[in-house]
Each structure stands twice: as C-alpha cells, then as structure tokens.
C-alpha cells in the first residue's frame, strides 16, 4: 500500500464511521476554548471540563480574567497539572488580548503564539476548531497514531508530523482529521496496549501488519 493509498483508506474510514468528530473540551466561545486548551496541556480533557465552569463563572470574559490576581485564580485550577505556570499564563494571556487585540481572541496562528501559554499546538487547535482553518495540531495522540499507522515516516518532532500530515490530507479535511486522530489515539490506538482487535484501520496499519509478521 502506498502512502497515498494509506491516507485515502484512513480518511475514508473516519469519514464513514466518525463523521462528526469534535473536541471533547466544553466551551461556548473562543475565549473559553482558549482557556480550556491552555489548561489541557499534559492534562486530561475530563479534568479540564471539571475545572473550567468555576473559572468561567468568576471570569466570564477575557476582560474580567485580565483583572484576576494570582491568588484569586490559582485555587480554581489547583487540581490541574502545573497550576502555577498555567495561572500565570492565563492572566498574562488575558492581559495581552486586552492590550494588543482589543479584547478579541486572535484568529491566526502567528498572532496566537504571541500570547503567554500558547504554543503552536494550541494555536492550531484554536484556529482549526473555531475557524476551521487547515491547521493540524499535533499532540501525543496524533504523533503516536500517525507513526503507528504509517501516515508519517521517521517524524521525530510534532512539526515534522504536522508537515507530513498536511502533505496528504485534503485542506478541507484537516480540521476534522485532527479530531479523528486524537480520538482514535484516546480510545483505540492507546499508548500501552492498542486495541487492534477493535480497530477498523488494520488493513492500512503498518503497526498491525508488523505484529502479524512477528506472531
């Protein structure tokens, strides 16, 4: 199977079986999504979703968050991984959005990555989820699943993975393909014991065919 054929099989499978894939983070607007994604770094979406309601109740807008103090915000995210840094990042992000973007969450990767706590992955999530821009966010799930299936070859960094995926995924599918790969990695192609017996991608999966050879 060629790389092009592998991508075609995988995308067709997801399109047929998971046509409405979307983020599992709960949000109502770009501000809430940005807060949630910043908090989700090295933390589960489930934990983030348990944490954000109290934040959004106290700080319903980016403007109100920009006036928060560390001591006020920290208790609300104490249960999240790296709470000290994330508290500082959230306040700094809100202040910069107010000062430099007139209170509007930026809509481009270039602008978003200037915000505290926002790297390329977070910026790609925001622009793809909110604006359906063809940007591929690569987290640990996307990185692992892409390599196992054989969608990427010798990619050693998230950026290399991103660029290889963008080469073969049609532009109009990039925003949803991000969710397809994440959800597949979260529930089927898990890190330690992938559930190959339940996986519909076996015909196209290099990892699975290697297991057959070794059996």
Automatic annotation (TrEMBL):
Entry binding sites for [4Fe-4S] cluster: 189, 196, 199, 205
Source taxon at top rank: Bacteria
Catalytic activity reported: 2'-deoxyribonucleotide-(2'-deoxyribose 5'-phosphate)-2'-deoxyribonucleotide-DNA = a 3'-end 2'-deoxyribonucleotide-(2,3-dehydro-2,3-deoxyribose 5'-phosphate)-DNA + a 5'-end 5'-phospho-2'-deoxyribonucleoside-DNA + H(+)
HhH-GPD domain location: 39-187
EC numbers, comma separated: 4.2.99.18
Cofactor annotation remark: Binds 1 [4Fe-4S] cluster.
Keyword terms: 4Fe-4S, DNA damage, DNA repair, DNA-binding, Endonuclease, Glycosidase, Hydrolase, Iron, Iron-sulfur, Lyase, Metal-binding, Nuclease
Family per similarity comment: Belongs to the Nth/MutY family.
The protein's name in its UniProt record: Endonuclease III
Organism: Chitinophaga defluvii
